[in-house]
Design a protein that fits this description.
single chain; mainly alpha; about 70 residues; 3 helices
Length: about 70
């Protein structure tokens, strides 16, 4: 079963919503920077999860670019 982020990215790709994907990417990147800057707790697990989500979003952006190139 696909994760929530995979379903969201898939939906944005099917709708050809590049802006939505880019905003989702920026949000996750800000979260990662914020967590990496904190101390006093082990944030390695949420940071790893956010980095995996960023990789999923990057893959979605790549798929969207391919789809748009093929349509052109």
């Amino acid at each position: 079963m696909p994760s929530a982020i995979e379903q969201i990215v898939d939906t944005y790709v099917r709708l050809k919503n590049r802006r939505g994907l880019e905003e989702l990417m920026m949000h996750r990147q800000r979260l990662a920077v914020d967590l990496k800057g904190r101390s006093g707790y082990d944030f390695s697990l949420p940071i790893r999860q956010i980095e995996e989500e960023i990789a999923t979003i990057e893959a979605g952006l790549g798929a969207l670019r391919s789809a748009l190139s093929a349509a052109a």
